[in-house]
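Student: Send me a single protein entry containing the residue sequence and its fold in C-alpha cell form, directly below this note:

Tutor:
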Amino acid sequence: MSAIKSALQSDKYEVRIRAIERLSEKRIISEREIETLLVETIPLVSILNGQTFTLRLAEKYPTPAVKRVLLWCALHGNDDVRVHAAALIYFLNGIATSSFDWNYRPFYLRFGDNNLSNRKLAYDELCEKIQVDPRWAIDESA
C-alpha cells in the first residue's frame, strides 16, 4: 500500500491518478484529498500524460473546487485539456448527456482556438449557459 501512496507524488500524472483511484476504491484516501489532488493535477495533464484518467476521475468527484478548475482550464488550460474541460463542464451541469456529447462538439472546439479573445467569447457563453459568473473561475476575488 505504501507503494501506491508514494505513486501520488509521481511526475507521471497517469500513475498519480491511477493511485488515487486505487486508494479511493479501498477507502484509504478521503474525498477531500482526492479533490485536492484533482485540482492540482487537472491543469497539468495532457492527452499523452493521464488526461483521460484524470477527467474520468473528475467526473466521479465533481466538487465545486473541481468544477472551478475545469472551468478555469476551459479558458486557460493547455491545448489538450481546454476542449475536454469545457465538455465535462457541460455534462456536469446537466446540459450534455455524456462527458463529450458530440451534439455540442462545434461549441467545445471553440475552446481549442489559440486566440484567447475567441476562447473568452466561448467561455462567457459557457458561463451564461451554466449560470455562473464568468469571474468565478478566473478571478480569486469573485
Remarks:
- The chain has one domain: 2-136.
- Residues 116-130 form the longest helix (15 residues).
- The two ends are 40 Å apart (CA to CA).
